[in-house]
Design goal:
The chain has 299 residues and is of the alpha/beta class. It is built from 11 helices and 14 strands. It has a 6-stranded mixed sheet with strand order 6-7-8-3-9-10, sandwiched between helices.
Length: 299
């Protein structure tokens, strides 16, 4: 793997008894990227993140974060990585300003100017008690605490879970705007695929603990397409006669196929079926996710 990676795993594995939660995960997150780690609930996203931060012991494999070993250098990693998790516990009897003052003492790199600027941008009331904040405001406060010491890498684990649609959108866009101002890296897990497409430039998809896709978003969308074929008399075994078919849609004279590699070879194979019409269509990331995860279930 390249030296520009901020996260590298090699056959990273976690088993709980007979259940394998993360299965030989080999992953690379490029420096400066906004990397979306996608999967359904229970796919292994949180378990992976907890191993990266050594909040959970791995069963096998290796993980490196910012060039450091996730186990041996766990403390050094925590000082250089900002982390926001779903349901993060905050000291709710403190006010916002009191909590900022308290957390400042743990991080030599804490930047009061950054904290103050973010507090204003995120519209957090300094004198308000944490327990009185809305869920959206508490999520923003957790983000502020994670970023005030200027981390090189920000890890977000389902950061918008439980928030309404408007707050989720504002939160994610705010994160990307804030972090990319200094060219830092964002690694965030989510099962809300439709929201990810607006902010990510890299995508990794995990299903039942296995990585089934990892590439730049634009490359993924350029490769995975919908072919719509129209026939006078549809041939039998259409799926078997085209390479890299992920899913079939429709039937009869007009058939839709989602293909994993819309190359010239794939298009040539489609034309060889002698359709009366052939159209190539783009897909949303959500469509691609559903097709890839569905194919993984069949395997």
């Amino acid at each position: 793997m390249g030296t520009t990676a901020v996260i590298e795993t090699t056959k990273l594995t976690k088993r709980f008894g007979r259940q394998t939660a993360v299965d030989a995960l080999t992953l690379m997150v490029p420096r400066g990227s906004v990397f979306a780690f996608l999967g359904r609930n229970g796919a292994g996203k949180t378990t992976t993140i907890r191993m990266l931060l050594h909040l959970l012991d791995k069963t096998a494999g290796t993980a490196r974060v910012l060039g450091m070993d996730s186990v041996r250098d766990a403390l050094a990693i925590k000082r250089r990585v900002g982390f926001v998790g779903d349901g993060q516990v905050l000291y709710d009897w403190m006010s916002v300003d009191e909590l900022l003052w308290f957390c400042k003492g743990f991080y030599p790199g804490w930047d009061d100017a950054v904290a103050g600027e973010m507090k204003g941008k995120l519209e957090l009331p300094g004198r308000a008690k944490v327990r009185g904040l809305s869920r959206g405001e508490q999520a923003k406060l957790a983000l502020l605490l994670a970023m005030a010491y200027r981390p090189e890498l920000l890890i977000l684990d389902e950061p918008t879970a439980g928030l309404d649609v408007v707050v989720r959108r504002d939160f994610l866009e705010g994160v990307i705007e804030l972090i990319q101002e200094e060219g830092r890296t964002v690694f965030f897990s989510s099962h809300l695929v439709h929201e990810v497409e607006r902010v990510a430039d890299w995508v990794g998809i995990i299903d039942r603990g296995r990585l089934i896709c990892c590439r730049p978003l634009e490359e993924l969308k350029a490769r995975v397409k919908r072919l719509t074929l129209t026939f006078d008399d549809p041939p039998a075994d259409l799926r078997a006669r085209l390479p890299a078919v992920l899913a079939m849609e429709g039937g009869g004279r007009r058939v839709g196929m989602i293909v994993n590699d819309c190359s010239e070879a794939t298009l040539a194979a489609a034309r060889a079926l002698h359709p009366t019409a052939l159209a190539v269509g783009d897909l949303s990331l959500e469509d691609i996710f559903v097709a890839l995860v569905g194919r993984a279930e069949e395997a």
